[in-house]
Write a structure and sequence with these properties.
globular, eight-stranded mixed β-sheet, 16 strands, Carbamate kinase, alpha/beta
Length: 300
């Protein structure tokens, strides 16, 4: 009995520690980019759904933007379509765009919505085409194609097909859903002026939506602990003014660069804080938001 009481007291202390953070974020909007291993592991998927439901229950407005690259590649492989990339962007012709939309909107989005609803939440699935939520234009990428022997040749525009960049976010539909206690779950497909669909990087969509809503926080769930220094130690807090220097000296490299760029842009658009968090850790969202130490890297 003594041990049970002591364990209960420890649980109560955890709740008390979380209280000021719950008060701080109450009635605030949190944008969560959901991707990586947390979208694949069945146990982590359920924990994510429960975490998001808890946020909503205590008065926080979570908005989810999800990825789905591995799922897209799986279907492309079944259809015999070989994916190709330029500077990390998926080259998206008309046929590939059909697959992207089919997987992101018709499969992944519905699975996430269904899981949240099954666990007791109220989620609604959207794509950027719904209500012209995410307006986009064709992304222009400049560079050299292949191994160019002419090192001094100027870069040229590379056509990556229907890859888009966000031009505008129409937040009315999101505000209506949040006010009516729904959790929006958004697939990163945008709409162009002519009504055609665009494939957009989910991190970029999350940043644009967070900025448009002046969100209190944007959280990127990844498969790494966060930003590390050259000794391999996690950097827990990082002012955005230091990002450029860390990129220049190679501390931030590879796939982490677009993530910190996304955070930088979200902060520029008015988001208060951004975080890069390891989605492989159970309840990483709650640990980041409601504990003193947090997890991952906070960029402010």
């Amino acid at each position: 009995m003594v041990k049970t009481v002591e364990e209960s007291i420890e649980k109560a202390k955890v709740l008390i520690e979380a209280l000021p953070y719950m008060q701080e974020f109450r009635h605030k909007t949190i944008v969560i980019k959901y991707g990586g291993h947390a979208m694949v592991d069945e146990h982590l998927k359920k924990q994510f759904a429960l975490d998001v439901i808890l946020l909503k229950q205590i008065g926080i407005n979570p908005i989810i933007v999800h990825g789905g690259g591995p799922q897209i590649n799986k279907l492309l492989d079944r259809l015999g379509i070989k994916p190709s990339y330029v500077q990390g962007m998926r080259v998206t012709d008309g046929e590939t765009m059909d697959v992207v939309e089919m997987v992101l909107v018709g499969q992944v989005n519905k699975q996430i919505v269904g899981l949240i609803n099954h666990c007791g939440g109220k989620a609604v699935g959207l794509s950027g085409r719904d209500g012209d939520l995410v307006c986009a234009k064709k992304m222009k990428i400049s560079g050299k194609k292949g191994d160019d022997p002419m090192q001094d040749a100027p870069p040229e525009l590379i056509d990556v097909g229907r890859v888009g960049q966000v031009t505008k976010v129409n937040i009315g539909v999101l505000e209506s859903l949040s006010k009516n206690d729904f959790i929006p779950v958004i697939a990163p497909v945008g709409v162009g002026e002519d009504g055609q669909a665009f494939n957009i990087n989910a991190d970029l969509v999350a940043g644009a939506i967070a900025g448009a809503l002046a969100a209190e926080k944007m959280i990127l769930l990844t498969d790494v602990p966060g930003v590390k220094n050259k000794s391999g130690e996690l950097i827990t807090t990082l002012p955005k003014g230091e990002l450029e220097g860390l990129i220049d000296d190679g501390t931030i490299a590879g796939g982490m660069i677009p993530k910190v760029r996304c955070c930088e842009e979200a902060l520029r658009r008015g988001v208060a804080k951004t975080c890069i968090v390891d989605g492989r850790v159970e309840h990483s969202i709650l640990l980041e938001m409601f504990t003193r130490e947090g997890v991952g890297t906070e960029i402010y």
